[in-house]
Amino acid sequence: MADRTLLMVGTRKGLWIGTSDEARADWEFTGPHFDMEEVYSCLVDTRGASPRLLVGASSSWLGPQVWRSDDLGASWQETPNGAVRFPDGADATVERVWQLVPGAEDDVVYAGTEPAAVWRSSDRGETFALEQALWDHPHRPDWGAGFGGQAFHTLLPHPTDPASVTAALSSGGVYQSTDGGGSWEARNHGIRADFLPEGQQYPEFGQCVHKITRHPSRPERLYLQNHGGVYRSDDEGLIWKSIADGLPADFGFPIVVHPHEPDTIFVFPINGGDKRYPPEAKARVWRSRDAGETWEALGDGLPDSFYVAVMRDAMCADDHERTGLYFGARNGAVWSSPDEGETWHQVVADLPDVMVVRAARI
Question: If you write DSSP's letter for every residue of 90-117 in order, what string do you get?
Answer without folding.
Answer: S-----EEEEEEE-SSTT-EEEEEETTE
